[in-house]
Each structure stands twice: as C-alpha cells, then as structure tokens.
Amino acid sequence: MDWTPLILTFKLAFITTVLLLFISVPVAYWLAYSKSRLKPVMETLVSMPLVLPPTVLGFYMLIAFSPSNAFGGFLDKWLGLRLVFSFEGLILASVIYSLPFMVHPIQSGFSNLSSSLKDAAYVMGKSKTTTLFRILLPNIKPSLLTGIILAFAHTIGEFGVVLMIGGNISGKTKVASIAIYDEVESLNYVAANTYSLILFSITFVILLFVYAVNGGFIKKFWQ
Amino acid sequence: MIDVQLQKSLKAATGDLYLDVEFKIRRGELITLYGKSGAGKTSIFRMIAGLLDPDKGRIDVDEFVWLDTEKKINLPPQRRKIGFVFQEYALFPNMTVLENLRFARGKQSDDLFIKDLIDIVDLGDLQNRKPDTLSGGQKQRVALARALVQKPEILMLDEPLSALDYEIRNKLQVYILQVHKEFDLTTILISHDISEIIKMSDYLIELDRGMIIRQGIPAEVLTNHNISGKFQFVGEILTIKRQDFIFIITVLIGKEIIKVVADEDEGKKLSICDKVLIASKAFNPIIHKID
User: Fold this and answer.
1) How many CB pairs under 8 A join A and B?
2) A4-222 has which fold?
3) Domains and their CATH numbers in chain B
4) Residues in chain B within 8 Å Cβ distance of A117
5) For residue range A189-207, what is the model confidence (pLDDT) as tens digits?
6) How many Å apart are CA A108 and CA A32, to the nearest integer?
C-alpha cells in the first residue's frame, strides 16, 4: 500500500485552505459591503468554478502556464516557477477551483450580520480593520468554519483540474482521487477500494463535525 | 451650538423622498425628532453620525466643521465625537457586558470611569454576562452605558425605548435624563411617544416626508396651544360614554386610569385611542386632543 497519494492529498488540501482563508476574507468582505458596479462581475468570476467543468479550467491553466507560451515562459524564466505538472501548479489550481466554497459562506456571514454592529464600532472610533477582526469575524465563526471545511473537503475531492494541470506524477501530483482512477484502470480493485474507503470515511467525519458544531450539538454535549 | 443643514434624496418604504432640513441645537439641550415612520428621522441621525452621506449639506459643531459638501469636508464617523444608541441596541454578541464597554473605550477613559457608568445604570451584577442572555431593558442600559464610555459630545438615541414595556421605559427615561445632565451632554432623541417627549425634551422638531413641519417647546408644538395648566398629563382614551348632556371619558395616563368630563362639542371630536392632554387650571380640567 502506497500512502503518498493520501499524504499528498491532505497536504494539498491543507495548504489550499490556508491560502484561501487569507484570500477569501477580503474578497467576501468586498462582495458583502461594496456598492461598486463591478460587483456582479466579481461575483460571477468567483462563482464560475461552481458551474464550469473542471477540465475547462484545467485546460486554460495548462495553456497559460505552459513554458512554451508567453506567460508560462515568463514565470519559468524569471521566477523559476513552473506551474504545469508540479505541486505548486496544483495548489494554484485548487485555490481557484475551491474559491467559491470558501467565499460564499463568509460572504453570507457578513451580509447576515446586522449592519448596526459595524456602524456602532465606527461611531466608537474604531477603524475598519479593528472592526473586522474584533467584531465582524468573531461573530461569523460558524460561517468561517463552514468555509474552511467546505474548501478543505472540496480540495480532497478534486479530480478534473488536478489531472489536467498536474498529470499523474507519483509523489508530485498523483493525489488520492487520481490514484483511485489509476488503480481501477490497471484492474487493481483492492488498492482502489482502500483509497476510496479512506477518503469516504475522512470526508464523512469532517462534514459531520461541521454540522455538529454549527448545530450546537458539541456545545450541548460538553455542558 | 450645533448647526445642521442636510439635503438628500432617499428611497423610503413609502416611495421617493427628498429630505431637506435645517435646524440648530443649543449645547446641553435635549431635543427630540418626532414624526411618522419614513419621515427621515433615522436618515438625519445617520448623516449626523457620518454613517450616511448627504447629497448636500453642512454640519457645524461649535467652531468645528464636521461636514461641508461644498468644501468637500466629510469627517468619518470615527472622528465625530458621538455616542450612538441604536434602535436594536447593536451590542457585540461575542463580548460580555464589560468587554462591550471596554471595547468602546477610547484613549481618554479608564476603568474607573467604566465602573462609574456600570454603577449609574445598575449593571453591576450583569457585567460578565453575554448580551444574548439579557432582557430588552438590560440591553438598553448596556447600550446607553457603552455610548457614554467615549465621553461623547453628542448623545444620539434612536427610539431607544420603543420596544420596552411601560415600567422599564419610565425607569430608563430617568437614567437618560440623569446622564444627560450629569455628563453635560447635548442629546438628540428619536421618539414616537408623546408623554416621553413632553417629559424629557427641551425642544421638539416634527418631521413629515423629509421636511420640518413644526418645531418648538414640545408641549406647545404638540397641543398647538400654550396652556398654562397647574398640572398636565398626556394619555390615551380608553372609553367614551355619553351621559345626558356630557361625555365621561376614561383616559389611561401611564398606569393610572382616570375619568374626565367633556361637554358635547368636545366629546364629539374625540374617539377611542386618541392621544389627549389633560390639564387643570384651578380645578377645572381641560381635555385637549393631540394630533
């Protein structure tokens, strides 16, 4: 049994989630409070990965980041960054692909929060940043948790984008979902089953945890 | 002296509304904005606090300019020295009562002052509770104390007592009057309750569809008359009974029910639920409808 695909999957999911948290809070904040005319465009872009086949995203990223094209060549030559068939490429693709799963819960968390909380903090002389970290974020913890877990779980379940941009390089880009496909193709059902069962159990437990926490069951249990 | 001139077109629930007001507030006064919902009261509040930008206007507070659209001056809410009590209290749910007050503290105020405030509004036993576990009246007291922590120059109260029952409302009116005097505040209040207005405010501004329609001493504005009563109360008519040539009118004043006699002409003008002013001039009570 080769554990590398599973380790790679969780490493990818963890890094993606951490990066997404830093990206999504400002994006969600802007989407929740901005009155800009560009807002619908931004909202559409963020939501695109929900409806687009992952292969479309993967295909365009493959083209863009290929070292034989201008942008990919520039990254390769000047930054030494090759984003096709590499782990870094997988991270970037996952961040884009899971963006809506993190942004949407946080955005609706902000929108559902009474605007007078923000106003009250401003009138008290608190800056926007202080208000965000001391008032807004602590009061949307369930939304943050939902976003974090959904992004994490969704990255574990990725297949199409990863296959397109990462390929199937053992120890580098061969994550669990691809390993399953690989094992099935070589008729190795036992290995495929092991990977599948592990992914199934872990994602089940993660989602159960979110629903239990947000539903208040854990709190009740501890009291 | 606070000088306010504001113009803004608003989208109200009742349709488009052009708000155009101009008024002055003297230091240390408690003034009330009064009017139907959708008259623009809350919008005026938000513009004074800097939470809403007017299309055109000026706000001068003593020698300081808070807002001047012509000179493109518009101080952000953070730099206007205002204590704001929101209609829905806006207490921070993630903090205890004490933490709410401490968060509000600027550089000027210390723990001692917070302790004083907690004593003034009787929050001693509640300071470690989260807002969700408090009753409406308790939340309102926290909101009031929190608005005072920053030692504001202007205290603004947006219908602070409308959701509370009579007894608690009465008590809180006393608290508000007490802090208004004690901290030498200039206070602006939004209220619908006529007895509250007459009891609390020095000056009344009545708004309708974005315009000031009447202003002056509350009792005079609300009754249209200058009644020099020995005593006067505001109440609500519960029943009207005809008895021969007179009407016997039952009025609820606060928690008390009293009966007043009205002659035929007066009686015909009154109906149940009317707000009335009962005044007495040397033992002959006068009953007068308030519109």
Assistant:
1) 53
2) MetI-like fold (1.10.3720)
3) 2-223 (3.40.50.300), 231-290 (2.40.50.100)
4) 90, 92
5) 999 999 999 999 998 998 8
6) 7
